[in-house]
Amino acid sequence: MPTETVYGLAADADNDAAVAQIFKAKGRPADHPLIVHVADASAVAHYASEVPNFAQQLMQAFWPGPLTLILPRRLGVANAAAGGNPTIGLRCPSHPVAQALLKAINGGLAAPSANQFGRVSPTTAAHVQGEFGPDLLILDGGACGVGIESTIIDCTRGAPVLLRPGAITPAQVQAVCGLKVLLKEELSTTAEPSPKASGTLESHYAPRARVRLMSVPEIQLGLRTEAVAAGVAVWHRSPLEGYAGGAVLQAMPADPALAARQLFAVLRTFDLQGVTQIWVESPPDAPDWDGVRDRLQRAAH
User: Fold this and answer.
1) pLDDT tens for residues 61-99?
2) CATH of the domain at 100
3) How far apart are CA 90 and CA 80, in angstroms?
4) What's the whole-model pTM score?
5) Does a structural domain hold residue 52?
6) Residue 168: which residues within 8 A CB-CB, separation 6 or more?
7) Would you call the peptide bond into 217 cis, given omega within 30 degrees of 0 as the criterion?
């Protein structure tokens, strides 16, 4: 199914046998939890045993939208979708097709990205079909508007903790709930380990080609000194001065939201062109680029 972030491989979150088919199709470890999509905040009580006040504020401000909240899970509910963990990730997508489907089934849908585990996420129906072939029913909702997965905020520690950056920034979260958003690195070394969450492994979102994050001088030096004619694609924001040809060049938007929307499609296109290396100009060190930078760092790991 389409969402505003990426396409998701969906199954009834309360049907453990159906959810098991997601893990099988993706080749995903069964203890790596899935995000459960709900039609609105009224469905949260079915899955969560506790909802802190700041989490309620975030739902009111950002749902429907690209924000996932990690909450304590009700015992016996959506065990397979949660990977057996005591917490559960919940999100309310804004895409009209996803909303229509959730309202039609009157329940929650576990829906990780519709791709093989660890590979590039799909942002069009064609990407999904290319990944899984003709055996899936694919609801074509067009290209995804956001293009990278949701921001994940852990709400089980008394304060919001960022587990995965996305289109919604920590500054936006803090502005709504009045609490500083902590990073995992800022937590005490004696604190409980962070809950497991989707898309937080060091290696993820990887195309077949090797991804390298590089500065502009590094890219230009490489283009002058390496045999790149048949093997390298470059996704760059800055002009590449004096370069005459050889590698596949693609301009990266200067707007981080547009770059996020294009990111996975660009990686997939480069793969289809048969390159062996993808050189990406490192994104700016700015909060609104955090989501793009996170996905590229994991793709390059």
Assistant:
1) 999 999 999 999 999 999 999 999 999 999 999 999 999
2) 3.90.870.10
3) 14
4) 0.94
5) yes
6) 62, 65, 66, 67, 150, 151
7) no
